[in-house]
């Protein structure tokens, strides 16, 4: 099965910049998007054969997530933990027979780190939620996670130490999650790859010079690692300041869910 995740930075704008061409080219089983920046009724996307699940932020033109999938889930849930976070439309969870798919748009700590404390509480709540799900069946967790975990995940690590998305605290929360039984699928396949980024500033020629950050991920339960078929970053796809990331899994071979 093919999974794609993309922060589209406004789905209405991205639709005008080739979103559907890319979508139909890839024909994924699951397409997760973040930062939809719209409310129900503001956009309609005709995707025959796909179920659509949207989680809109209450604030217009802000945040929001969606999942388009060929596979009808057993259950769907929106948000987790803090009620204020749920108002921002940041989480969708789909349950299937052998796994959960969790699509997330992680809060940004802000340039002045004004939202760092809030962000860390979010990370703690989300980790507890993912561990709870993982206790039932494996988890595929994806989205714009707004953190470059390692120094090789951004072009200029020394100049960005302590900046939003590269603070010791944010990176530490990612490490803690991975140490809780999860795997960064891209790093599983490419443990030492450099210059592979998923986000670039809109500043002049930054993307052309590949001065970027890898902040979009597929994080999976450790016991799914052996079923990874492919992990990739589609850096050539424009339409947003982020690019899509891909994960292909041998789902038919995946372990059975836990029954305890």
From TrEMBL:
Pfam families (alphabetical): Exo_endo_phos
Domain Endonuclease/exonuclease/phosphatase: 4-242
Positions of the record's site feature: Interaction with DNA substrate: 242
Single annotated GO MF: DNA binding
Note describing how the cofactor binds: Probably binds two magnesium or manganese ions per subunit.
Record-marked site positions (Important for catalytic activity): 216
Binding site for Mg(2+): 7, 35, 144, 146, 241-242
PROSITE patterns linked: AP_NUCLEASE_F1_1 (PS00726), AP_NUCLEASE_F1_4 (PS51435)
InterPro entries: AP_endonuc_1 (IPR004808), AP_endonuclease_F1_BS (IPR020847), Endo/exonu/phosph_ase_sf (IPR036691), Endo/exonuclease/phosphatase (IPR005135)
GO terms under biological process: base-excision repair
Record keywords: Hydrolase, Magnesium, Manganese, Metal-binding
Active site: 105, 144, 242
CDD domains registered for this protein in UniProt: Ape1-like_AP-endo
Residue(s) at site: Transition state stabilizer: 146
Necessary cofactors: Mg(2+); Mn(2+)
Family: Belongs to the DNA repair enzymes AP/ExoA family.
Protein name: Exodeoxyribonuclease III
Organism the protein comes from: Rummeliibacillus stabekisii
């Amino acid at each position: 099965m093919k999974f794609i995740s993309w922060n589209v930075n406004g789905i209405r704008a991205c639709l005008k910049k080739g979103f559907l061409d890319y979508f139909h080219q890839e024909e994924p089983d699951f397409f997760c998007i973040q930062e939809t920046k719209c409310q129900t009724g503001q956009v309609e996307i005709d995707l025959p054969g796909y179920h659509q699940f949207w989680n809109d932020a209450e604030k217009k033109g802000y945040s929001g997530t969606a999942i388009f999938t060929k596979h009808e889930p057993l259950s769907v849930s929106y948000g987790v933990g803090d009620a204020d976070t749920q108002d921002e439309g940041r989480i969708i969870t789909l349950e299937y027979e052998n796994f959960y798919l969790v699509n997330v748009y992680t809060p940004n700590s802000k340039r002045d780190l004004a939202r760092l404390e809030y962000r860390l509480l979010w990370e703690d709540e989300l980790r507890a939620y993912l561990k709870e799900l993982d206790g039932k069946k494996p988890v595929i967790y994806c989205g714009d996670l707004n953190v470059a975990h390692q120094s090789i995940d951004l072009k200029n690590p020394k100049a960005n130490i302590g900046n939003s998305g590269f603070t010791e605290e944010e990176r530490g929360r990612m490490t803690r999650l991975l140490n809780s039984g999860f795997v960064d699928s891209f790093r599983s396949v490419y443990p030492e790859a450099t210059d592979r980024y998923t986000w670039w500033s809109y500043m002049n020629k930054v993307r052309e010079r590949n001065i970027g950050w890898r902040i979009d991920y597929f994080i999976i339960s450790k016991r799914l690692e052996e079923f990874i078929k492919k992990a990739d970053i589609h850096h050539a796809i424009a339409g947003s300041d982020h690019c899509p990331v891909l994960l292909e899994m041998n789902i038919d071979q995946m372990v059975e869910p836990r029954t305890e």
